[in-house]
Amino acid sequence: MVRILIASLVAATAVFLWGAAAWMGGLWDWGVRNMPISGGVNILLSGGIDESGAYVFPPMPEEDGTESDEVKAANLAKWEQAHRDGPIGMVLVRVEGGEPFDPKLFARGFAIEWAASLMLAILATLVRGGFGRRLLAGTVATLFAVAAIHGVSWNFLLLPDSYAAATALDSLIGWMIAAAICAAIIPGPPAGAAGR
User: Fold this and answer.
1) Half-sphere exposure at residue 82, Cβ-oriented, CA atoms within 13 angstroms
2) Which of 29, 92, 93, 126 is the most exposed place for a label (fewest CB within 10 A)?
């Protein structure tokens, strides 16, 4: 148990430091850009957004149930054409704002990374064999998470390629480092141990 806690703490620290290096080192520069100041945010928010959430545009037609089939079809066709013509997007809004570089943000982020590292450390304890097998298990878990989260989001949310690539690469590198740390610190069960 002590090795699991040590491995997860070291792995979480490494992921946290990798995230800082990736952000400050420019990995995200090609994936996240500032919106032009000339009214960009105000134009998007001038439609009366007063609740935090994820907002897509062009907005899908909203119906109250009184529309005829012809009106519904026309509204849908208009939305489909606007979607084809672009731009399309999603704006994530937190109307209450927040402190830039809030220490709570970093503390919460580290806690989440530690919880995820605990899962990798526990996985490493379940793998029979040496470092290579434990690293392979951590690699597969990392690739699964990147594909299941970043790949699926990129596809179905139509995320920009550069953003999806930056998020996936950041996660892939950070969690591969964590997987290697857990594989190195935690000995798995003996290769000849009987399964239960």
Assistant:
1) 14
2) 92
pTM (2 d.p.): 0.82
| Bond from prior residue into 160 cis (ω within 30 degrees of 0) | no
CA-wise closest residue to 117 among 152, 149, 147, 142:
142
Contact in structure between 52 and 96 (CB atoms under 8 Å): yes
Mean pLDDT by 10 residues, the chain (196 residues): 94 96 88 71 66 87 87 92 90 84 94 97 91 94 96 93 94 96 84 50
3-state secondary structure of 91: strand
Amino acid letter for position 174: G
Q: What value does the CA radius of gyration of the chain take, rounded to a whole number of Å?
A: 23
Element (H, E) at 99: none
